[in-house]
Amino acid sequence: MAFVRTVPLPYVDIHTTVVPAGVDVVWRTIGEVMGRSFAGRPGAACARLVGVPDRTASGRRPLPVGSTAGGFRVTAADPEREPALTGRHRDSALATAQ
After folding, report:
1. What is the dihedral of CA 61, 31, 26, 84, to 10 degrees?
2. What pLDDT does 21 receive?
């Protein structure tokens, strides 16, 4: 039996978007949108189908560390600046760069 040594891959998708709104508005909206992601029966069925472990929203808003929403868990948060999110499903593991 041969063993294959694996090496972590670099980030391949980095996206930036300029939003013409105040930081407080954007931060609050991110929390609201994430709270609605996978909401309701269709969203829950989709999340279950792809094997998302964090299917329900939990924690206060906007986005404290440890809260979950839309298949993601908040692993770090610099309020009104940047949330760091991780998530996974059957085919992928996702993390935001910090």
Report:
1. 100
2. 92
Mind giving me the DSSP string for 5-50? ---PPPP--------SS-HHHHHHHHHHHHHHTT-HHHHHHHHHHH
Determine the Cα–Cα distance for residues 10 and 31; give it in Å rounded to an integer.
Answer: 28
Contact 77, 83 (CB under 8 A): yes
Closest alpha carbon to 97 in 10, 8, 18: 10
The model's pLDDT over 35-85, given as tens digits with 9 standing for 90+, comes to 776 667 777 777 788 888 777 777 777 778 888 877 778 888 887 777 787
